[in-house]
Design goal:
This protein has about 425 residues and is an alpha/beta fold. The chain has 15 helices and 13 strands. It is about 40% helix and about 15% strand. A 7-stranded mixed sheet has the order 2-8-7-6-5-3-4. The protein has a 4-stranded antiparallel sheet with strand order 9-10-13-12, with helices on one face. A two-stranded parallel ribbon has the order 1-11. The chain binds pyridoxal-5'-phosphate. The site of pyridoxal-5'-phosphate has 14 residues, from helix 4. Pfam families: Aminotran_1_2. Its cofactor is pyridoxal 5'-phosphate.
C-alpha cells in the first residue's frame, strides 16, 4: 500500500462527523458506517479482494517472481530442514527478551555485509522500521525534510517524532530540496552552524510513480548548503531491493553512495518474497534503536521460518543467482514499453503512460482507471486502479507491475485489452 498524502490520510476523513448535529450518528457503529458511506460516495472505499489464482499477475510487488521460484523454495526448505528438530520455530518474545538468537544476529551480519553497511538491525516489517527509526532518531527540534511522495509509514514515524519542523519538498526535485533547506537555514542559524540536525527522507524508487530518485543531485545540494556535515540522508529502498543495483543490492549501491547514507531501509516483503526489513546504519545508531525504537522493543520478533526465508533470499542474491531474473525483468520492461508506445490513442480519451525507463512499475494515467482496471481483471489480468487518497487528486491511474515470471505473451494480452478499452471509450465518447 502506498503513501497517503499529508492531510488526506484515512484518519483525517472521519473527523468531520459533528457530535452536535441533529443528524449525528447515534452509536460508534453509526459513526463508522457514516465514514464508510462518505468514502463510498467519493468512490474511495477500500475493499479486500481475492483474485483467482489463474489470473496473470501485473500487480504484486513480487518483482523477481521469487515467491513461486523453485530455487527459492528449495533453499528455504533446506534451511528449515537443516536445523535440529528441537530448534524453536517461534521466536518466543521480543528481541530484547527471549526473541533474539544467534541465527538472527548472523542474518543481520550477512545482510549488512551484502549491503556494505557497518551494521544491520532487523524489524518485523518496513512499516515498523520507518515508524521505529523516525519516531526515535531525530532529536528534539531537529529538522526533517521529506519528499512529497514518501510512504505512509514514514509519515507515521514523523508524526510520532520529537523533531521540530517537518517540511515537504517537491517530488524528486533537487531544486525543491534546495529551496526548502534554504528557507529553514534562514529561520534557524543553528542549522548553518552545524548544531541542528537536518534529515532528508527519500525513497530510491517510488511505489506509485516507479521513478528512481536523483540521489547524487540531492547529495550535492546537502553538501553545498550544510558543509558541517549535519545533513543526514534516510533512504527507503523497499522497491529497489532485489531489483536494482549490483546483485539487487539497491540503487544506493548502484551509485556507490552507501557511505553517504545515514540510514537505509531494505524491506523483504516485495522482491524478496518474505517479510520484515533491515535498517542499515552505524553501530551507535543500531544500539540507540535497540534502546529507543518502540516498534522493535514492544513486539514479538520474527520467528525462525521468516528468518530462514530472508536468509534464503539473500543467499540467492549474494550468489548472483537472481541476476538473470533482474535481466529478464529489464527485457520485459522494454517489451511492455514498446507495446504501450504502439497503442492507438484518441484525442477524446485521456490516456498517458508514465514510466521511468528501467522501472518495473508503470502508470497508465486516465480519468477512468476503475473502468480500465475492471476490464483487464474481467479478462484475467490483475492490475489495480489507484485512487485518492493513496495518490493526489487528479493523479488517478492504473498501476502495472512487471515480474521476471511474466511472459511476452501475457504482456501482449494485456496491451490488447488496453487497446480494446481505448477503442470502446472512444466509441462511447463519440456517441455523446
Ligand atoms: C516505500 C515503502 N516503505 C515501506 C513499506 C512498508 O514495508 P512493509 O510492507 O514491509 O511493511 C512499503 C510498502 O509496503 C513501501 O512501499
Amino acid at each position: 500500500m502506498a503513501a497517503s498524502q499529508p492531510g488526506t490520510s484515512s484518519t483525517s476523513s472521519t473527523s468531520s462527523t459533528s457530535s452536535t448535529s441533529s443528524s449525528a450518528p447515534k452509536t460508534l457503529i453509526d459513526s463508522l458506517s457514516a465514514a464508510l458511506s462518505r468514502r463510498e460516495a467519493k468512490s474511495a472505499r477500500r475493499r479486500l479482494t481475492v483474485l483467482p489464482r489463474t489470473a496473470v499477475d501485473f500487480s504484486s510487488n513480487d518483482f523477481l517472481s521469487l515467491s513461486t521460484s523453485s530455487a527459492y523454495r528449495e533453499r528455504f526448505l533446506a534451511l528449515l530442514n537443516n536445523t535440529p528438530p528441537s530448534f524453536p520455530l517461534a521466536s518466543g518474545g521480543s528481541r530484547l527478551l527471549d526473541g533474539n538468537s544467534a541465527y538472527a544476529e548472523e542474518l543481520e551480519n550477512f545482510v549488512a555485509e551484502f549491503h556494505q553497511a557497518p551494521t544491520a538491525l532487523l524489524f518485523n516489517s518496513g512499516y515498523d522500521a520507518n515508524v521505529g527509526v523516525l519516531s526515535s532518531i531525530p532529536q528534539p527540534g531537529d529538522v526533517i525534510l521529506y519528499d512529497e511522495l514518501i510512504h505512509a509509514s514514514a509519515h507515521e514515524g514523523m508524526r510520532l517524532s520529537r523533531a521540530g519542523p517537518r517540511k515537504m519538498f517537491a517530488h524528486s526535485s533537487p531544486i525543491g530540496l534546495r529551496e526548502v533547506l534554504q528557507s529553514q537555514i534562514a529561520e534557524d542559524p543553528a542549522i548553518v552552524e552545524g548544531t541542528r540536525n537536518v534529515f532528508v527522507l527519500i525513497e530510491s524508487i517510488y511505489s506509485m510513480d516507479g521513478d528512481v530518485a536523483p540521489i547524487k543531485e540531492f547529495i550535492a545540494v546537502v553538501d553545498e548548503l550544510l558543509p558541517h556535515g549535519n545533513g543526514y540522508f534516510y533512504v527507503d529502498e523497499a522497491h529497489a531491493t532485489g531489483v536494482f543495483g549490483p546483485r539487487g543490492a539497491g540503487v544506493v549501491q548502484e551509485l556507490g553512495v552507501q557511505d553517504r547514507m545515514f540510514i537505509r531501509v531494505h524491506t523483504f516483503g516485495k522482491a524478496l518474497a518474505s517479510h520484515g526489513a533491515m535498517v542499515l546504519c552505524g553501530p551507535e545508531t543500531r544500539d540507540y534503536l535497540i534502546n529507543y525504537a518502540r516498534s522493535l522493543i514492544y513486539t514479538t520478533a520474527l520467528g525462525f521460518p521468516f528468518l530462514a526465508s530472508i536468509r534464503a533470499a539473500y543467499e540467492l542474491l549474494s550468489s548472483g543467482e537472481t541476476e538473470s531474473l533482474q535481466r529478464r525483468l529489464q527485457e520485459l520492461i522494454r517489451h511492455l514499453r514498446q507495446q504501450l508506445d504502439g497503442l492507438h490513442t484518441y484525442q477524446s480519451v485521456m490516456f498517458e503512460v508514465d514510466h521511468f525507463p528501467t522501472s518495473p512499475i508503470i502508470s497508465l494515467r486516465t480519468s477512468q482507471p476503475r473502468q480500465l482496471a475492471s476490464l483487464c481483471q474481467e479478462n484475467g489480468f490483475v492490475v489495480r486502479a489507484i485512487m485518492p487518497p493513496t495518490i493526489p487528486e487528479g493523479k488517478e491511474r492504473v498501476r502495472v507491475c512487471l515480474h521476471a515470471g511474466n511472459t511476452e505473451g501475457e504482456i501482449d494480452g494485456l496491451t490488447r485489452m488496453i487497446q480494446s478499452w481505448l477503442d470502446q471509450s472512444h466509441r462511447n465518447e463519440s456517441k455523446l
